[in-house]
Amino acid sequence: MINASSSGGPSPRLRQAIEAAIQADVVVVAAAGNRPTDLSVTFPAAYEGVLAVGATDREGNHAAVSVTGEQVAISAPGVDIYSTSINGKYSKATGTSAATAIVAGAAALVRSRFPGLSAQEVIHRLTATATDKGPPGRDEQYGYGVLNIVAALTADVPPLASAAVSPTVSGSSAVAGPDGRDPGGRGSTVVVWVAVLVVAAAGGVAALLGIRRRRQGG
């Protein structure tokens, strides 16, 4: 798992590193970029095979700070996000970098829950279970939709149509998720972000899975 909560321009060395990671079956998650500094989806998010992340605001809508583009594949909260900081303190940040960290944590949870999935299949599960926003299907603001961790961990997601399909996510040839993607419903979306912030701040994988087991038992 590689989380690139950063943005910049393309370079041969960066491309080589990304391609090497993808060939090694590593999930690469990267920030799409922030306005007004960035005018389009930045690198490494713009490279094929990278899960490019946009940001949503406190109301769950597209965040004004988040750049748009056909490479955006998924969105997550990116406004006023609290996380751990130096000297035992916490800090608040806004931008696609914060959203990317949340998606990276979700990808790690999915791979922990389904260790047999390839990187391509992990990305497919995240995008296929995202909660659709904006125009139906994939769009340049939300990608396939807003991250839904509960659905990503529990939904019955059909496998990719063919193992020969390229694991392209940033480009327009990425595999589309199914219609009506919200198995968890609105109530579970609240749980999603609580769970993600726990994971991002304290690495609470066991806590999240424990919550899920209690729900199944009760």
Question: How would you summarize what this structure contains?
Answer:
The chain is of the alpha/beta class. The protein is 35% helix and 12% strand.
Task: Write up what this structure looks like.
The chain has 218 residues and is an alpha/beta fold. The chain has a single domain, classed as Peptidase S8/S53 domain (Rossmann fold). Helix content is 35%, strand content 12%. The chain has six helices and six strands; from the N terminus they run βαβββββααααα. It has helices at 12-23, 96-113, 119-128, 149-154, 185-202, 205-217, and strands at 2-4, 28-31, 51-56, 72-77, 81-84, 90-93. A four-stranded parallel beta sheet has the order 1-2-3-4, with helices on both faces. The protein has a two-stranded antiparallel ribbon with strand order 5-6. Helix 2 packs across helix 5. The N and C termini lie far apart (33 Å). The model is unreliable at 162-168 and 172-218 (pLDDT under 50).
Number of DSSP helices?
6
Radius of gyration: 16 Å
Write the CATH architecture name: 3-Layer(aba) Sandwich
Which fold name fills CATH's third level, the topology?
Answer: Rossmann fold
CATH H-level superfamily title: Peptidase S8/S53 domain
Q: In which range does the helix fraction lie?
A: 25-40%
Cα separation of the termini: 33 Å
Strand content: 5-15%
Give the strand tally: 6
CATH class category = Alpha Beta
Integer count of domains: 1
Spatial arrangement of strands, main beta sheet: 1-2-3-4
Report the structural category.
alpha/beta
Low-confidence segments: 162-168, 172-218
User: In one word, what is the shape?
Assistant: globular
Main β sheet profile = 4 strands, parallel
- Give the SSE string: EHEEEEEHHHHH
